[in-house]
Write the structure tokens for this entry.
Amino acid sequence: MLRRVEENALGRAVTFFRQRKRLTLRHVGEMMGLHVSTLSGYERGVRRPSPEILKKLADVYEIPLAYLVLDERDLQQVIPEEVAEAVLLFMRRPDIKRLVEEVKNFPQLAVE
């Protein structure tokens, strides 16, 4: 049986996928017609998004809805193992996430 993700894990997932798309809360709010404080509440776990909002968030982040609503064990059963491992690692280790962001933002050298 599949378990629903706990609220703080849901908020971390929503934050992770928003940041992965390099979107601000304001941009997501404009795209979805929601106030920034509402989205921030979802990410902090003080507000609970409706199923419709979760589906819209998944659409905005271009991910399957399961990535947001399943707990870690169920997520590993639904998505490819290597994807699940990367997602879970980023969610657990903000230091690695920051390192990847720094690498992505590092100027590319022209190789000829």
